[in-house]
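Notebook p. 47: complex prediction with asparagine.
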Amino acid sequence: EDKARVVILATGGTIAGAGASVANSATYQAAKVPVDKLIAGVPELKNLADVRGDQVFQIASESFTNEHLITLGKRVAALARQADVDGIVITHGTDTLEETAYFLNLVLKTDKPVVVVGSMRPGTAMSADGMLNLYNAVAVAATKDAAGKGVLVTMNDEIHTGRDVSKTVNIKTEAFKSPWGPLGMIVEGKTYWFRAPAKRHTTGTEFDIDKLDKLAPVDIAYGYGNATPTAYKAFAEGGARALIHAGTGNGSVSGAVVPALQELRGKGVQIIRSSRVVGGGFVLRNAEQPDDKYDWVVAHDLNPQKARILASVALTKTSDAKELQRMFMEY
Ligand SMILES: NC(=O)C[C@H](N)C(=O)O
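Predicted complex, structure tokens below:
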């Protein structure tokens, strides 16, 4: 049987990191090792697929900008159109991996497998996790079973949908969790699937990376008991078209902040209530705050950083809060 042809797009991160000693699992420099060296470090990849590398960026993922997202998305889209490419793996820092995976899941128009992968330890560390994570990512990108499932993330032997997955701890290799569970597992280069994504993705969305050159400016302000309107107002003055409120509990808003958000909404800024609750925030419309009355939006189960991604993409299509709310329920 012909082997699948998989391209590894490298963007940096800890999976390309290097430390001074094998004891350095947390102290190291990210984005140091070029993609060809990463591939050469796992010779067994060639048992899974015909693999070639392409270095897109060499950065730590905390420095990913909207422009990086657009550039990467267009590169993936162009590769996915090539007849000699069957699957795509993106190596990425773990800090904002969940944002990039969700962005690609919204805007790519392909059924071919696209898998985002990172590592929690640099390749120079004891028990480095990058080698196996990369091997697993290529295994997923090379299998037809991964086609049509949207953008996937492989970490710690698990297959997650890019829509749900989030980094939940920063000093363990079992860092990535989905509140509704993983889609499957990878064991010794074979994939085992248990469920499929329920939300609209890739070819099923109304967004298209080929028609997207800029994302809407959206900022996130954190909710807490003693919060003031200062950050919200500053973000709005800075040009934000939407503010993601990383609210307490069910996206609740402290009394001192509510009038400022009503005022900003009156000036055209979208107010989107999400939850700072880790691993299971779920904001219900018109609970805690009268969203219908204020013309606010709820982020549903999307965490604040994923809500920023959807709002940044959605606001290129609409300025209507009801339309925005529809999208937050569908994606
Ligand atoms: N584990 C990692 O990849 C963390 C790193 N700061 C990054 O996101 O690039």
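Notes: Residues 217-330 form a domain with the Rossmann fold fold (CATH 3.40.50.40). The chain has a mean pLDDT of 97.
Next step: compare against the earlier run before touching the bench.
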